[in-house]
Amino acid sequence: MSQTQTQTQTLWWASESFWKKMAIWITAGSVVVLIFLTFDTVKQITAGGKRVPAYSVINQRIDYVFDDKRNHQVPVIGPEEPLFGKKLSEEEAMALVSKGKLTTQAKNCMNCHTLLGNGAYYAPDLTKSWLDPNWGTKETREQKMVDFLMNPEEMLHNSIGRRMTNLGITEEEARATVAFLKWMSSIDTNGFPYNFKPIDQSDPAPAAAPAASADAAAAPVQQ
Ligand code: HEC
C-alpha cells in the first residue's frame, strides 16, 4: 500500500497541480492566439484592404482572371469604368454600397441565394453575379440588372428554370444593390466560385494584337 502511495507522488505528470497549471497556461495561450487571429481577420476583411477593396472600386472595371501562381481565378481591378457612368467619391460609394447591402438584408436575398457562399441553395450564388455573361454585354449589364431586380418574375435569364419572385424593390434600391454586387465581385475569395466564366469586357483589340495572335496560331505548326 505504502509503495503505491510513493509511486503516485513521483508521477509528476499525473499530479493535480500539474494539470491545473496546464489548464491555466493552455487557456492563456489560446486567448493570446485568438486575440491575434481576431485582429488579423479584421484586417483581412475590412474594406480598403488587400483582399476586400475600398468601396470606390465600383468606379473601376472588375474582371475575374485565372492566376497561374495561385492556381485559381482572382479578381483583377482594371481601368476606370464608373457604375452608371458616374464616378463617386469614397464616401458616396460607401453610402451606395451600404444601401445595397441593407437592401439585400431587408429583402432577405439569402433566403434563396448564397452571398460569398453563405445562404440558401435555391438560386445562384451572387458573389460574381456582376460578372455573369447572362447580362449580355458590359454596356447593357447595369440597366439589365436594375430591370431584373425590379421585375425579376418577367425575366428568366439563366438555365436553372426557376424564377425569382418580385420583392418590391424600388429603382433606387435596385441601383444600390447593383453597386453592392459590383463591389462584392471585387473581393478576393481564394477562387470562389471556382471555374466561373466572366462576362467578356475586354476593350477592342489594339492594332498590334493581330501580330501576337498570328504568332500564337503559328506555334502549334512549329511543334
Ligand atoms: C424567393 C427566392 C429568391 C429571393 C428571396 C431572391 N432571389 Fe434572386 N433569384 C432567384 C431565382 C430563382 C433566380 C434565378 C432566376 C433567373 O435567373 O431568372 C434568381 C436570380 C437572381 C440574380 C441573377 C443571378 C445570376 O445568375 O447572375 C440576381 C442578381 C438576383 N437573383 C439577385 C437577388 C437579390 C439582390 C435578392 C434580394 C434583394 C434576391 N435575388 C432575392 C430567387 C430569389
What is the level 1 CATH name of the largest domain? Mainly Alpha
Strand order of the largest sheet: 1-2
Radius of gyration: 26 Å
Name the average pLDDT: 89
Compact description:
The chain is mainly α and 223 residues long. The chain has helices spanning 2-10, 16-45, 90-106, 141-150, 171-185, 209-222, and strands spanning 60-67, 72-80, 114-115, 118-119. The strands form two sheets. Strands 1-2 form a two-stranded antiparallel sheet. Strands 3-4 form a two-stranded antiparallel sheet.
Question: Your description of this structure?
Answer:
The protein is mainly α and 223 residues long. It folds into two domains: 2-45; 55-185, Cytochrome Bc1 Complex, Chain D, domain 2. Helix content is 43%, strand content 9%. The chain is built from six helices and four strands. The protein has helices at residues 2-10, 16-45, 90-106, 141-150, 171-185, 209-222, and strands at residues 60-67, 72-80, 114-115, 118-119. It has a two-stranded antiparallel ribbon with strand order 1-2. Strands 3-4 form a two-stranded antiparallel sheet. α3 packs across α5 and α4 (141-150) packs across α5. It is elongated and about 80 Å long. Mean pLDDT is 89; it is low at 209-223.
Describe the protein's topology.
Elements: H1 2-10, H2 16-45, E1 60-67, E2 72-80, H3 90-106, E3 114-115, E4 118-119, H4 141-150, H5 171-185, H6 209-222
Antiparallel strand pairs: 1-2, 3-4
Helix pairs in contact: 3-5, 4-5
